[in-house]
Amino acid sequence: MNDELLQKLIQAGNSKIVMIIMDGLGGLAREVGGKTELESAHRPNLNKLAQDSALGLTIPIEPGVTTGSGPGHLAFFGYDPLEYEIGRGALEALGVDFDLHPDDIAARGNFCTIGTGGNLIDRRAGRLPNEESIGLIEQLRTIKVDGVEFFIEPIKEHRFAYVIRGLNLGAALEDSDPLINGAAPLAVQGRDDRSNLTAEKINLFIMQAKEKLSKRSSANMILLRGFAKLPTLPSYRQRFKLKAAAIAINGMYKGVSRLLGMDILEVPGQLLADQFEVLEKNWENYDFFYLHFKRSDTCGENGDFEGKVAAIEEMDSFIPRLMALNPDVVIVGGDHSTPAILKSHSWHPVPLLLYSERVRSDNIKEFGERACSQGSLGLLKATEVMPLALANAGRLAKYGA
Amino acid sequence: MNDELLQKLIQAGNSKIVMIIMDGLGGLAREVGGKTELESAHRPNLNKLAQDSALGLTIPIEPGVTTGSGPGHLAFFGYDPLEYEIGRGALEALGVDFDLHPDDIAARGNFCTIGTGGNLIDRRAGRLPNEESIGLIEQLRTIKVDGVEFFIEPIKEHRFAYVIRGLNLGAALEDSDPLINGAAPLAVQGRDDRSNLTAEKINLFIMQAKEKLSKRSSANMILLRGFAKLPTLPSYRQRFKLKAAAIAINGMYKGVSRLLGMDILEVPGQLLADQFEVLEKNWENYDFFYLHFKRSDTCGENGDFEGKVAAIEEMDSFIPRLMALNPDVVIVGGDHSTPAILKSHSWHPVPLLLYSERVRSDNIKEFGERACSQGSLGLLKATEVMPLALANAGRLAKYGA
User: Fold this and answer.
1) Whole-model pTM?
2) CATH number of the A92-228 domain
3) CA separation (Å) from A153 to A100, A110, A136, B118, B126?
């Protein structure tokens, strides 16, 4: 729904919406005609809820497009990720689960190799092994510059996420990476006064890094590019008139939620039970809850079919606790598919269940990929989930007379 | 379909299309797992027709959006209501079933309270009761101004629809409502010469209204805002090369049809039988017929589940008379859902049946919400119905070679 229409129709209320995102929920069968991870799971509670719900399959971005968790979440939250783009540096930091704050500046970093004259010999330092890279990152982490903090997180091989945190930083920064071998790494330059001061701090960091790595013949320098803050997005309160809370354990999901102005509720543990306890304790304080469940994706990425089945079964066991709270609207879905047999995210549409007392239930007695493909919500864009949830929550006024 | 493509493909013909709009057709079951109004109805003829048809569910505007009948009809007629917006005043008049003519100027009116100094004390006159408002409207109806006619129709509480009809009126008019208490009501001003002359007539009306209400301590003045004519839309003849007729009883539906250049056929009675008689008598004169059935919506709005079932059953009984005419294409659908249990319009997709000899029939033996969700037309936008009907009527040429 475009913003203009949404702002015309949105109205406050006191109904409560719960959105459960099972990361990487969608899957594939191990053999033709077989069952997916979700279909294989013993899931009596999800199946019972499905019977009273409308079902469908969400397309995260567009047909055929495999999405990362950042854009996948944005879409499911009701923000077109092609419109609200998260800068590369920020995305990289969120992508390794770094809990990026609104004023942090993030960049894509990598180790490179320079010759004795200081010019680049290999921009990727021979794609050095992860173990070696992690050791070098430990050295970078010891670097101190007055007035700012740095965070460096390994990504893969020569790549790392680089974050600078401090007061009054500017993100209008040019890359240090000249993008070709043979040239020398550049000093970072700012495009405005605040960014110039920030560039000075970063250049002090780079000089210390160069010194620390100077005894090495390869991976003896770093390059930084794609400096970005998190974008400013209309908050859930502005856009949907919802007081929203996120119940997530991993940093990236907290980061995306914070981006939308959700309160990040502290979870005192790593278990789904801890998350549901937080949900129950805060039930009176919010009218929208996002609860993120990571394990379905992790198992999918690891190619662990049975583990993903077990993760889904664990979530299933918590559905009665959720329904005991008597929510007005419940959404159960995923930000993308992560079929265990692919060991990666995929483009396949994701099962969706929308429950409310006002929903036109499909009378389908199962929550699974094939069952959802028979549902009345059909194949829908992930960005359409929130408007449907808001309608069911009685929070969208009539258009026209 | 965008206009450019449509104009490239559209071709004349002598096939006949009948579009039956059952207002508020879509419904909800009274209990989870139960049947909707349509599914509960004894509807042998619609079910028989469904078997030879393609089925689907229409989304009137967008997922989650509840529409009024005006935009809902525009969409079903093939015009994107977000593109062809009907001004607030005109919409208000159509919304209370006023048969607005193309040159009429309509505004949103309301009673307000002014103090002895003439400044507004309460822009809404304490939301006076409907009965009291109707009495005051009777007084306004006695006001005469040379060269123009006025129509005032009650809406609710302090609100009324205000229409001025005459020759050469201009609608570029500023509101008389200053929008804040403490200020005085404004004289209406025009933004061009014709509108200036129109403003004079309206200001004469307002002065007389003030005088008539002057003995009252509250609701002693009126405010007018949102002056608008009906928008100019491409007619059915221009856009679809169809000679179209509307067979409707209520004013609003005549108004929207007239907007599209349909001939409004006079119905000599209030019964569906009267409407079908008009259809039969005019069968040779048109190639597109729109037949509007209001009772399904009225019963839905009143929360009368059984009444809505009976209304659908009544329509069902006329299907054989329709098919005896041997139409080339038949559309049976609705402008929006009006579930009796909600007593209001809703966002739920609306059952759609598309019959023609060229349709790929679904072999589904039932016309109902769940049956249509299994249909081959899937979930489609209401604006896509007319292109499908035109294709089935042999009126769309091939695109490209």
Assistant:
1) 0.86
2) 3.30.70
3) 12, 11, 11, 70, 63
Specify the pLDDT at position A23: 97
> Which residue ranges does chain B devote to CATH 3.40.720.10?
3-84+234-392
pLDDT tens, B362-381? 999 999 999 999 999 999 99
- ipTM for the predicted complex comes to 0.84
Name the closest residue on chain A to residue B61, using Cα atoms. Answer: A399
Domain A3-83+235-392, what architecture?
A: 3-Layer(aba) Sandwich (3.40)
- Statement: residue A401 has pLDDT above 80: no
Asked if A388 lies within 8 A of B64 by C-beta distance, the reply is yes
Domain over B3-84+234-392 is classified CATH 3.40.720.10: yes
Q: To probe the interface with B, which of A15, A354, A360 has the most B CB atoms within 10 Å?
A: A360
How many other C-beta atoms are found inside a 10 Å radius of the C-beta of residue B201? 19
CA dihedral B81, B82, B83, B84 (to 10 degrees): 40
In angstroms, the separation between the Cα of residue B139 and the nearest Cα of chain A is 26
* Burial of A373 (C-beta count, 10 Å sphere; 0-12/13-18/19+): middle
Which tens digits make up the pLDDT trace of B191-220?
999 999 999 999 999 999 999 999 999 999
Q: What percent of chain B lies above the pLDDT cut of 70?
A: 100
pLDDT tens digit sequence for B56-88: 999 999 999 999 988 999 999 999 999 988 877
B91: nearest CA in chain A? A401
pLDDT at B142 over 90: yes
Residue B159 and residue B149 in contact, taking contact as beta carbons nearer than 8 Å: no
What is the third-level CATH fold of B91-228?
Alpha-Beta Plaits (3.30.70)
Percent share of chain A, pLDDT over 90: 87
Mutate to test the interface with B, among A49, A52, A359, A398 (most CBs of B within 10 A): A398
Of A358, A401, A369, A284, residue with least CA distance to A54: A358
